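Suppose a colleague, Dr. K., hands you the sequence of a protein chain of 347 amino acids and asks what its three-dimensional shape might be. Before reaching for any lab equipment, you can write down a predicted structure in token form. Begin with the sequence itself:
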Amino acid sequence: MKTTLGFSTTFFALLLVSCSTPQKAFEKADYTRSIKLASKNISKGKKVEENKDLIKRASQQAVDHTLSVNAELISSSEVKDWKKVQANYFKTLEVIGAANKVSAGSAREAYDQLCDQKSDLDFSIAEYYHLAGDELLTESRDTESTALARQAYTYYQDCLKNGGSTFYNDLDDLMQECIERGTVYYIANDGASVGGNIFLKQLPRGADRIADCEISVRRNSVSFSEKKSDNRKNLDKEIEVGQNAITDTSGVTTYEPIYDKIYGAEITTTVTVTASSTTYKNVRRNTEECFLSDSNFNTSVSDSYEEIRYEGDNRTWPDFAKNETGAPAFFNSKLEDQLNKEIDRKI
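The predicted structure, expressed as tokens, is then:
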């Protein structure tokens, strides 16, 4: 076992040494390491022209290798595979781009070649999402389906996230049309406003259409709970309680103080108060377009305050010491207000 471990250690040590220079890393086909080592040498002013040339050759090899190993994924019909290639291209471009700056443009040709390939791929990914959105939006126009418009919106969003604005100037208009076609209208009891969804709007008063959803919101009463934790700081102090008379051989008496230790404590109690409530949201679906369903959620908010008290001999206490016994009377009401705001946000 010891022999095997020793062999492995020696092997990896030799491997590290064998790739410790840009040229040796290049010969081992470790082009990324070769580029980085050559860039480091240039930064140190070592064999600048030689390392520039090596960066040029290693960068081209790195690009050729990247294109080769990703060829199968590129030919896939799955956009998820294209995204993997996109990420791989980006990694290689990062390395070559950094080296290109250090080497005054030695890797420009290789960088531009891979950059062009990535741009083509970027367009293919953006086009995939754009076409998928177009198909759904067209069907939504024909059928007046709000659900299809909402699905189209997600595809246009994906197009935008994948650089679609570089290739298309109609995304904002198409997404706005999806919002208009995909919107569902609701009315709610006690004036509740249901937010958090761009496709959900409150039906205006006097509108000449029925609401797709009728929402009933019920809030349970607020309950409060407390949790306390103590932090004890011990206080001690030496005080003079008397004197001890000492007479030496010449008859001279001196007095030495006698000390005693007294004890006390400062106790800080952190009180965490939590206000919580359960909210129920019930939905009556007036049309098939209503995509809401019954739900309930728990909401809680917390805040803390401190209580300070002193124990033991009061002579150990600081001059300003006084017992503080907790939060003001309106603490719970403020916490309840905060809870209600959080519930309103969730609704």
